UniProtKB/TrEMBL annotation:
Belongs to the BLOC1S1 family. Signal peptide: none annotated. This is Biogenesis of lysosome-related organelles complex 1 subunit 1. It holds the Pfam family GCN5L1. It comes from Digitaria exilis. InterPro entries: BLOC1S1 (IPR009395). One of its GO terms (biological process) is endosomal transport. GO terms for cellular component: BLOC-1 complex.
Amino acid sequence: MDGAKPPAGGGKLELEEALLQIVQQHHHQSLRHRQQTERAKKDALRSAVRVADLLVDAVDGGVQELFVNEKRIELEARALLSTVARYRKQTDQWLAATSEINSVLKEIGDFENWMKIMDFDCKSVNAAICNIHQS
């Protein structure tokens, strides 16, 4: 730099050492960078697995709750169907009983009507007999 040339043999050796040192530094930095990259990759993978596990747990919890609710609804539906069947049977019995009562009432009405007709007929016969007897 002040214009003087370094000795021919010594400068080449220093240059090789400097280049060797640069290559070693580059190699060490490259290894550190690779290790940092691997650590970051492993951390990212662990984080992704954790997120996936949390999502699966959240979905599984919802699915499990839905499954429990579905089973409860099925049980309630079966109970409701048996109650409806019981009420249908009871309603059919009531309909049969009311139909029987209606038939009996109709028969009573028919009997009452027959009695009125018989009463009228008897009165007519009685009146005819009285008229014949008086004549």
